[in-house]
Design a protein that fits this description.
The chain is 58% helix and 0% strand. The protein is an all-alpha fold. It has one domain. It is globular and about 35 Å long. The two termini are 21 Å apart.
């Protein structure tokens, strides 16, 4: 399936984030961004949490069974989500997250098998272990992270 043009524009930036060790910065921003309230967006938040957890597990070296292409697309989707002036600006109440949902749905559908494998792995971890793996220090607690991949 062809990458949506609006997401493809974020791939070079996603590669730079991975190469330059800036993934923690991105994940903090995703955690801080508010999603729209309501049941309609609850699944959206759960999917974002899954992608963020995958990135954290990969960053910490705990889960490396994801392909470089899938990881790159996940990071690009998170960058797209953070950009307020994308295809439909986020400040347009009721509409601003529609394009974000479409990009997220594409990533979830295209990389379904890899994300399901991660879900399975995640379910096998104890809650205490997941808390350590998925813990992201705040900016003032963060230590420099060396680049983890040549993407």
């Amino acid at each position: 399936m062809k990458t949506p043009w609006k997401l493809a524009r974020y791939l070079p930036q996603a590669a730079r984030f991975l190469r330059d060790g800036r993934l923690p910065e991105l994940l903090r921003a995703v955690a801080d961004k508010k999603t729209p309230p309501g049941a309609r967006f609850a699944a959206f938040k759960d999917d974002l949490d899954l992608l963020r957890a995958l990135c954290m597990a990969w960053l910490k070296g705990e889960y490396r069974q994801v392909s470089k292409q899938a990881l790159l697309m996940v990071v690009a989707a998170l960058l797209y989500f953070l950009t307020p002036l994308d295809a439909i600006p986020d400040w347009l109440v009721g509409l601003g997250f529609v394009d974000d949902l479409a990009v997220l749905a594409w990533v979830l559908s295209t990389w379904k098998a890899e994300l399901q494998a991660f879900r399975t792995w995640r379910e096998q971890q104890s809650p205490q272990r997941l808390a350590v793996i998925e813990y992201l220090p705040t900016d003032d607690q963060a230590s420099p992270v060396s680049p983890r991949a040549n993407i």
